[in-house]
């Protein structure tokens, strides 16, 4: 695998995540949010209580996507353990690739990718100590739907359905400053899926990743994906390209470090980043509401 320089891209992502929309940061009464996962048969991310934005290490944000004209997002950020996956990947993986090292182990797991990733997700409550920050984001960026040109989630009519892009980030480090020492080889984990109509029916209700506005103050995201949108099926043929960020995959980010010693005897490390990927069924629902 080749060395990947992605500092600029990471800065853009970080700034987009950290910025609060005007509706929450401006003057007057801020928009307040709560969220909860819906527990139902077949879900592999079942319900785990109510999350209140701004309380107990929880942020819930919404606003425009600055890097995608006209698009908007709604996201949940967690800093305390509360999410439990149940069985993702344990029945086998639909596909996987780029495991060019013997093992891509996570803390407390054994074995090679993608099995170690399945163990990491299913055997822990997330966030973990080593991965202390989770962002679950839904946005309309990259999910054009010709029957509805509205891409502002807050302007949806009640009962409207929009396909959305799900981005599920598990961060192991401060992504504004990349690690320079080989103390944390496995850096991040990202799940990304763009909603599409896999049945070919053309009906908005058949999108595999979508948001429905269920009332004047409530939006529910539905995820039932195998990461198989044909438009975003790129499986990292060119790891030097930032295009891997648009692939629908469960994507790992792993670093290996090669030491070198300068004339003064000081050791420095050159990092090379690797991106193993996998596909497995992911099914859950999460409801957001204003109060």
Quick take:
The chain is mostly beta strands and 291 residues long. The chain has helices at residues 7-18, 22-25, 115-122; strands at residues 33-38, 50-52, 58-64, 72-78, 83-84, 95-97, 125-126, 133-139, 161-163, 165-171, 186-194, 209-215, 218-225, 249-261, 267-274, 277-279, 282-290.
Report on the architecture of this protein.
There is one protein chain. By secondary structure, this protein is mainly β. It has one domain. Helix content is 8%, strand content 36%. It is built from three helices and 17 strands. The strands form three sheets. Strands 3, 4, 6, 8, 10, 11, 14, 15 and 16 form a nine-stranded antiparallel β-sheet that branches. It has a six-stranded antiparallel β-sheet with strand order 2-1-17-13-12-9, with no helix packed on it. Strand 14 and strand 15 form a beta hairpin. The longest helix is centred in the N-terminal third of the chain and has 12 residues. 35% of the residues are buried.
Walk me through the topology:
Elements: H1 7-18, H2 22-25, E1 33-38, E2 50-52, E3 58-64, E4 72-78, E5 83-84, E6 95-97, H3 115-122, E7 125-126, E8 133-139, E9 161-163, E10 165-171, E11 186-194, E12 209-215, E13 218-225, E14 249-261, E15 267-274, E16 277-279, E17 282-290
Antiparallel strand pairs: 1-2, 1-17, 3-4, 4-8, 5-7, 6-16, 8-10, 9-12, 10-11, 11-14, 12-13, 13-17, 14-15, 14-16
């Amino acid at each position: 695998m080749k060395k990947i320089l992605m500092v600029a891209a990471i800065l853009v992502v970080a700034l987009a995540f950290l910025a609060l929309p005007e509706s929450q940061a401006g003057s007057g009464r801020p928009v307040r949010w709560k969220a909860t996962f819906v527990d139902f048969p077949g879900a592999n991310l079942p319900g785990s209580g109510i999350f209140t934005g701004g309380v107990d290490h929880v942020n819930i944000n919404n606003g425009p996507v600055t890097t995608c004209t006209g698009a908007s997002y709604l996201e949940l950020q967690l800093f305390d353990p509360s999410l439990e996956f149940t069985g993702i990947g344990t029945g086998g993986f639909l596909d996987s690739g780029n495991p060019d090292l013997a093992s891509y182990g996570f803390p407390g797991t054994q074995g090679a990718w993608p099995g170690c990733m399945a163990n990491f997700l299913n055997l822990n409550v997330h966030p973990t100590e080593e991965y202390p920050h989770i962002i679950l984001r839904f946005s309309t960026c990259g999910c054009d739907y010709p029957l509805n040109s509205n891409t502002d989630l807050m302007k949806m009519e009640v009962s409207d359905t929009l396909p959305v892009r799900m981005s599920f980030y598990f961060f192991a480090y401060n992504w504004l400053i990349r690690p320079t020492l080989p103390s944390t080889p496995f850096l991040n984990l990202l799940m990304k899926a763009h909603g599409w109509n896999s049945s070919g029916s053309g009906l908005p209700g058949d999108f595999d990743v979508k948001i429905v506005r269920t009332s004047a103050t409530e939006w529910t995201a539905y995820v039932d994906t195998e990461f198989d949108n044909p438009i975003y099926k790129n499986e990292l043929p060119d790891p030097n390209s930032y295009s891997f960020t648009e692939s629908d995959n469960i994507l790992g980010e792993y670093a290996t470090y090669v030491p070198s010693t300068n004339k003064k005897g000081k050791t420095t490390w050159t990092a090379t980043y690797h991106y193993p990927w996998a596909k497995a069924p992911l099914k859950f629902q999460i409801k957001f509401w204003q109060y």
